[in-house]
Design a protein that fits this description.
The complex is a heterotrimer. By secondary structure, chain B is an all-alpha fold. Helices cover 73% and strands 3% of the residues of chain B. Chain C contains nine helices and ten strands. By secondary structure, chain C is of the alpha/beta class. Classes of the chains: A alpha/beta, B mainly alpha, C alpha/beta. Bound molecules: adenosine-5'-triphosphate (ATP) and magnesium ion.
């Protein structure tokens, strides 16, 4: 990792070296990677471990058609314009074959737009925005994680079972939060006619005024709550909600909260019985998950987080795509990725042809407190393909 | 209903107490040392982390909690004293606001250091039962800890009041707040006074950080999420006024608590709207006094057009820049494009900040408006790129003219903070107007016109436009208007006595600076192919400020050198190391120590000295 | 007609009546000295005349026109030039540029954005500087001028606007006695040539009695005596004030 960075700097040195003529033979396949390592370290550092592990495993197994893979990684500092510049650097100076990564939705979309403009392949890992594969979707962009639509769809069945009539929502005030609330309202209203949404809270990301937010929600006397906050905002909100009894006797549906990144900091304050999406890392025993968890623990001496899974699956999905395309030619990959299936810690997943969304799913379950730590119980894996709209609907949203 | 109101009021008051604790330290430090201490948020964050390290090892009872908090305060006070003695002390003589640059370097270093010491994960402090208990009001609950915080705010206010009015040290502090030179003349050991004030301020930040733990966690976002709010409180209260900070905290805390109920989306901007409203009505904050007219240190340096040698140097640099694509790779070309844009952006800020005497913390407003105007022109109205490049400065200039009408009536940090407030309001509008602007996802696909898609062509276009616009700004500065503007900065009295209308001059300068920034923004939009609310964010305003200060405020060369140095440093460090924040922060600190007049300013001085010898 | 006519001018700060019901007038070409001990209200009086301060009561007429309460800028535009007790010049400019800027303002050429300011009115500026004995210093930065030279520069700046009325607050502070007399003699000549009214304060009684046509004596805000140098010199009330405070020269 650090070695590729140093060499990157040397290559970006004052004089451009004439384009190196590379034989297609056994030179490594170069994957550019951009993420918000300094801006969102809690998620992206485990993510980096995840893809590093995958790269090591792929190369140990002999690589893709005899070529090793090499990842050239960049920190975008959480700023879209910097990400765009670095994408240029990876494509032009590093001559990467394709590029991948990103955490924040706006950076993911910006990189996808670079891919469209430059006609190079971009594989988004973490960004959840639906626009990436639908409204702004295009030939050169693929996206791995379940989107906000899918997250909402996965939760809505259990939400309907709560049979709650009066709902309130609390969600960070930006696209991810707005999108979760929009889909959830839409889907729940279809499932459960007569449901009412009686209030919304839109704290600014990272600046929640948790006490006032919790009090304002409590005053509305809802039957159930939809939460989309995460990170420090979630910790603050949960503490205020606990003290103020906001969650007592109320159903809570909460996006992403079961991911260790966000569940761990709740510690002994973890509210029980929330319906969440996440990664029950401490109770997964199936072979695929276990193999990944063990390998990860052996390599990094810590338990993997959701980011680790995403990082690992990202490499697997790219490798499978290249293998299926039989080439690192962009046009061939843009076609060839579609339909490629790959193994992830969560099981088999594939790239959909109709919208370039992966069918990687996530776990839906309930939060519980065990030994002073938060955990997920009663979970089930929901495959991504089960949480996507019909092909007709997708067609309507996605530009031709 | 009534109980709901009461609960919301109490919640607001406890939020107000937390705000007050952070701001009190900031206002005391500013009042005495005039240091705009950006690193106050970092001290707050370190307070939380230090508090976590101490408190998570102690039993979860009230007494150990108090003890742990006091230990944290002591640790942070020590750290503050060290910071002052080792770093800030060296640059008190430097031009105003240069310390800001310094403290920004500290912010960056502390971010990396904190992550290195405590790791990337949020650290929640487990709460004892007493911290989770509550009082019932009607059928609603108010956390006991909220009530404790509500009591701590006034207690700290009272303690500070006693300290400031009943001790000799406090008398000196108050005297220094009013007239720093006079206290120095009285033979008081100013150095010790400053060190102790910093220790006090840092201790208060530590207190606030530690007391924030029961409501959440120690995390790496705390520093930047608190610092703007703290500045807002300090400015609304009146710089240097502790009671003012208290009043402002209550105003903001309570309005925020009720604002959330009435208009949940308002959380993005509420504090800035409050600040703008207060400053428009009371230009010195709620309890601030008009600052004694002090000689502007920038104005004691004779401003001369560059010597022929320097002009040749500039021309050579320009030729080199124009020829660069022949021998640099595409990535460096994109860095050079960014440098050209940054140069114009910084030159625009310098225009109002140097000769105009108006530092701005919100210059990104006009940069961003220009970018959005250009993007909407080509995407929304399907106009050609040239039209976008034309509309951008017009719209940014018009907006600057509108906001500027309020801004130019203020001065100093108040003025700077009002520009920040307006920038945040513009930011929030762009962020919230999803249908028009795409919200935080921005507007994509803003690529240059066909004839300029080639990166070479676009680079030359950008270089030509930015250089031309910068030269226009320079021409204006040496024309009668520029002299009059500078005259109004040098001496308001004299300017009025020869019949100059300082307010109108400043207003015009503000408008021109806005238009120039707007042009820079539109070029940034086309070069990135997209526009985001981040174009208007505080961090971008700070970037411009850093570039101007790093280069030096005294001459046109300053912002140019500063923009090139800062952009180059940032872009290359980001590529070179994971620890770019620490390295960038240290570089800034070293540069300030080595070039106290800014790089261009100090280099110029050395050169003059060499010539005399 | 009188150039300046002041009636019943008053202004207090808190409890202090800094200027208390003062009335007087100055004729074209006349040099009127305003004297009094420290804190008598002289500078406050000047500030009321040029708009720096608003009077509590009273009126100020310039050439028959009411200028009471106008802003300093407006009053300057009506032809009132001023030098300050604590000099105020443009420190980031050379002496010549200081005068050039004043000339540009006078000729209403401020809102020009192209030709460099130093190329405007250079000769006129040099002539003014030469008049006040600053020819040698024209290219030096105002920030590094000696105090006496700053006073001279201020005079040149004030003269650039060809004022009808010139207000000079301690114009010779920081100068050697010979220079003081020379500078005030120059002012005397200019007043005669241009028919410019001059109101000045001065702590050097030799200068005051040697140059002034008439003298006003202010004490604790009140006008206690007014007349020619001879009558003032003979006035027992004035003597009492000055003997009482012991100050005849100096001050600040
Ligand atoms: N801005 C102000 N605020 C409060 N008091 C003031 C102000 N300006 C002047 N004074 C007071 O008004 C009185 C007159 O002051 P002024 O400066 O006019 O005296 P002066 O005659 O010019 O004295 P000096 O010979 O020392 O210059 C003094 O008591 C002074 O303290
Ligand atoms: Mg006086």
């Amino acid at each position: 990792m650090s070695i590729t960075r140093r060499s990157a700097l040397a290559a970006a040195g004052l004089l451009a070296t004439p384009a190196i003529v590379r034989a297609q033979g056994n030179t490594p396949i170069r994957i550019g990677e951009i993420n918000s390592y300094t801006a969102a370290p809690a998620f992206t550092l485990p993510y980096r471990n995840g893809w590093m592990l995958a790269v090591e495993q792929v190369n140990a197994a002999g690589g893709v058609f005899g070529r090793k893979i090499e990842v050239i990684s960049r920190d975008d500092a959480g700023r879209p314009p910097d990400a765009i510049r670095l994408a240029g650097e990876l494509l032009d100076d590093q001559k990467v074959d394709l590029f991948a990564g990103s955490f924040l939705s706006n950076i993911g979309l910006a990189l996808s737009d670079v891919a469209k403009q430059r006609k190079k392949l971009f594989v988004g890992g973490e960004p959840l925005t639906d626009a990436m594969v639908w409204q702004n979707g295009h030939r050169y962009c693929y996206r791995l994680r379940p989107s906000t639509y899918m997250q909402a769809a996965m939760l809505v069945d259990d939400a309907a079972k709560l049979n709650a009539k009066r709902w309130v929502t609390v969600s960070p005030n930006y696209e991810y939060g707005q999108s979760v609330v929009k889909w959830f309202k839409l889907m729940l209203s279809q499932k459960q006619p007569g449901v009412e949404f009686v209030g919304e809270q839109w704290p600014a990301l990272g600046k929640i005024d948790a006490g006032a937010t919790a009090a304002a929600l409590a005053a509305l006397k809802p039957d159930a709550i939809l939460n989309a906050t995460f990170g420090p905002d979630l910790t603050n909100f949960v503490r205020q909600g606990n003290t103020r009894g906001l969650f007592e006797g109320r159903g809570v549906v909460s996006v992403l909260t079961g991911e260790p990144e966000y569940l761990d900091p709740l510690g002994e304050e973890t509210p029980e019985g929330w319906i969440v999406t996440g990664y029950p890392v401490d109770s997964l025993t199936d072979p695929a998950n276990k193999a990944f968890i063990d390998a990860y623990k052996a390599r990094f001496n810590e338990t993997p987080k959701m980011g680790s899974v995403v990082g690992h699956a990202l490499i697997a999905s790219i490798v499978a795509g290249i293998a299926k395309s039989g080439s690192t030619d962009t046009e061939k990959m843009a076609d060839g990725f579609a339909g490629a299936s790959f193994d992830t810690p969560f099981g088999k997943a594939a790239w959909r042809a109709q919208d370039h969304q992966a069918t990687l799913g996530t776990y839906v379950g309930k939060t519980a407190l065990k030994g002073g730590k938060g955990t997920m119980v009663n979970w089930r894996y929901v495959d991504g393909s089960a949480a996507l709209p019909s092909d007709d609907e997708v067609k309507k949203m996605r530009p031709a | 209903m009534l109980s709901t109101l009461l609960v919301q009021l109490l919640t607001g008051l406890s939020g107000a107490s937390s705000l007050f604790l952070v701001s009190a330290g900031l206002t005391v430090i500013f009042g005495v040392t005039r240091v705009v201490n950006f690193s106050h948020g970092s001290l707050y964050m370190l307070g939380a982390y230090t508090g976590w390290s101490i408190l998570s090892r102690l039993p979860r009872e009230p007494l150990p909690f108090i003890l742990g908090v006091l230990l944290t305060v002591a640790a942070l006070a020590l750290l503050g004293a060290l910071l002052e003695r080792l770093l800030l002390r060296r640059i008190y003589a430097a031009p105003e606001l240069l310390q800001l640059l310094f403290t920004f370097g500290v912010v960056l270093v502390v971010q990396d250091a904190t992550q290195a010491i405590w790791g990337p994960n949020d650290l929640p402090l487990p709460r004892g039962r007493w911290l989770r208990s509550f009082v019932e009001i009607g059928d609603a609950r108010v956390p006991l800890y909220d009530l404790i915080l509500i009591a701590i705010g006034p207690a700290v206010l009272a303690a500070l009041w006693l300290l400031l009015t009943r001790t000799r040290w406090g008398t000196l502090i108050r005297a220094a707040t009013q007239d720093r030179e006079m206290v120095a003349a009285l033979g008081v050991d100013q150095k010790r006074l400053f060190t102790s004030v910093f220790a006090l301020g840092a201790g208060l930040a530590g207190l606030a950080g530690a007391l924030s733990l029961p409501d959440g966690s120690a995390n790496l976002q705390m520093d930047l999420s608190i610092i703007t709010d703290a500045f807002v409180v300090v400015v609304v209260g009146g710089l240097g006024s502790v009671p003012g900070a208290f009043l402002a905290s209550i105003l903001i805390g309570v309005l925020q608590a009720f604002g959330i109920v009435v208009l949940p989306q308002a959380t993005l901007v509420l504090v800035f709207v409050i600040m703008a409203a207060v400053l428009v009505v009371r230009p010195n904050g709620l309890l601030g006094r008009p600052q004694a007219i002090r000689e502007n240190p920038a104005s004691t340096t004779l401003i001369r057009p560059a010597e022929p040698a320097l002009r040749w140097l500039g021309l050579a640099a320009l030729i080199l820049a124009a020829a660069a694509p022949l021998f640099v790779g595409p990535f460096l070309l994109s860095v050079l494009t960014e440098m050209a844009v940054a140069m114009l952006f910084a030159a625009a800020l310098h225009f109002m900040m140097g000769p105009g005497g108006m530092a701005s913390f919100g210059h990104a407003a006009w940069f961003g408006l220009g970018a959005y105007a250009a993007a909407l022109a080509v995407k929304g109205l399907a106009l050609p790129m040239t039209a976008g490049l034309l509309i951008a400065p017009l719209l940014a200039g018009t907006a600057a003219a509108l906001f500027g009408w309020f801004v130019v009536r203020l001065s100093g940090v108040y003025l700077a903070m009002l520009t920040l407030a307006f920038a945040q309001i513009v930011w929030a509008v762009m962020f919230q107007a999803v249908d028009l602007t795409g919200g935080d996802n921005g507007i994509l696909g803003v690529w240059p016109a066909q004839w300029a898609t080639d990166r070479l062509v676009f680079y030359w276009l950008t270089l030509a436009l930015c250089t031309a616009a910068t030269l226009v700004l320079r021409t204006i500065l040496y024309a009668p208007f520029g002299y009059a503007l500078r005259g109004a900065r040098d001496s308001e009295l004299r300017a009025a006595a020869i019949g100059l209308d300082a307010t109108r001059l400043r207003h015009a300068a503000f408008t021109i600076a806005g238009a120039a920034a707007g042009l820079a923004g539109s070029l940034a939009a086309f070069s990135k192919g997209s526009v985001f609310p981040g174009f208007i964010a505080i961090s971008r305003s700070v970037d411009a400020l850093l570039m101007v200060l790093l280069g030096g405020v005294q001459s046109m060369a300053g912002p140019i050198v500063g923009a090139i140095a800062y952009t180059g440093l940032f872009d290359l460090l980001l590529l070179a190391t994971d620890q770019w924040r620490a390295v960038l922060g240290l570089s800034i600190i070293v540069l300030v120590l080595a070039f106290p007049q800014g790089i261009a300013g100090t280099a110029h001085r050395l050169w003059l000295r060499g010539k005399e010898a | 007609m009188k150039t300046l006519a002041v009636t019943a001018l008053s202004r207090s700060f808190g409890g202090v009546r800094a200027v208390d019901g003062v009335s007087f007038a100055v004729a074209p070409g006349e040099m009127l000295a305003l004297i009094g001990p420290n804190g008598a209200g002289k500078s406050t009086c000047f500030n009321l005349l040029n708009g720096q301060l608003r009077p509590d009561t009273g009126t100020v007429h310039l050439g028959g026109r009411d200028i009471t309460g106008l802003s300093p800028r407006r009053i300057a535009r009506h032809g009132v030039g001023r030098t300050f007790q604590i000099t105020a010049t443009f420190a980031s400019m050379t002496a010549r540029e200081n005068v050039q800027l004043a000339l540009l303002a006078h000729h209403r050429q401020i809102w020009r954005f192209l030709r460099p300011a130093p190329q405007h009115h250079a000769r006129e500026a040099d002539a003014l500087l030469a008049q006040v004995g600053m020819a040698e210093q024209a290219d030096r930065a105002a920030a590094i001028l000696a105090y006496g030279d700053l006073k001279r520069l201020e005079l040149a700046i004030a003269l650039a606007a060809a004022p009808r009325l010139l207000l000079m607050d301690e114009p010779t502070a920081g100068m050697a006695p010979a220079e003081r007399t020379a500078l005030m003699a120059l002012t005397r000549d200019l007043a005669n040539q241009r028919q410019m009214a001059v109101l000045f304060t001065e702590h050097d009684m030799d200068v005051v009695f040697g140059i002034a046509d008439r003298i006003l004596v202010l004490d604790r805000g009140r006008l206690v005596a007014e007349g020619t140098p001879e009558t003032i010199r003979a006035n027992p009330a004035v003597r009492a004030i000055y003997l009482g405070t012991g100050a005849t020269t100096g001050g600040h």
